[in-house]
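Technical note accompanying the year-one report. For the benefit of new consortium partners, we illustrate the data format agreed upon in the data management plan: each record pairs a sequence with a structure-token string. No post-processing was applied to the example shown here.
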Amino acid sequence: MSAPAVEKLVPFLGKYVGVLRTALVITGFALFSANGVAAEAYGIGLALAKHPDGFLVTKVLSNSPAELSGSIAEGDLITAVAQSNAPPVALHNFEFMGQAVALIRGPKDSVVRLTVIPGATNTAQTKTVSLVRGELRGIHFGGLWLSVLTNGAMIPDIELVRLPDKAKERLRDHLGKFVVLEFWATWCGPCLKLMPETQKQAERFATRKDVICITASMDDSPDVAAARLRANGWNKTRNTWADRSVAEAFGVGSLPRMFVINPQGRIEYLGYPLPTEALDRLLEGKTKDAR
């Protein structure tokens, strides 16, 4: 898979810890290409932190491809990633954790090659480590299982930050309406491609008092999201920003991600954003069921 193609599959995994962003390179997520086709992605079992020269290994997960290889350890520095026999992609210019994670993860049983500096300082012993991506079972994300929410589940009681005024609101404030909730980020290519359609969907439902369309940005800062929304005139949706706890509560492991919630607060759909026709059918059908 080429680097440009991988960049279209960037998942949300970033978090600041002091001046570092950390993430687990794990499995269990479905990544999506710009055309909405799902592609399962598997990992190698490393936790990473941003480093000026790449990404630092902060943990090697038990029974993972990385641990079983015995060739990479905590404290090692990953400076480049290559897909099978493709040229390596240097990581020192990568600003977001998601970019590195998207390169390291990929199809099951495929090979990923890492350029590794042992102990982050022993450049004389720089080596290339080849690992076969695999499925990691029993790994949780932020203390919550990624599969915690399914169709029919009650939504978690989470808080969102309105954009651009940063007023706080709770998702459950909208009980009594159908809620179309879409998670996105400014660094997510597929999200940006879909956002104009999301705005058109919100405009279509504007006359319906029983439907509300909400976007939830997963950017590091609400100001970043607000600036992009303002620049593109994306104001038909009820725009919000969500912190990492919201991603954890909803099990958001890839972007974009849509949740359709019924007036009772239960999930009717979760997955890649539905096209307008499919969303119309879903909401119309649920409205008739409620009559």
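Partners are asked to follow this layout when depositing records. Residues 32 and 38 are 5 Å apart (CA to CA).
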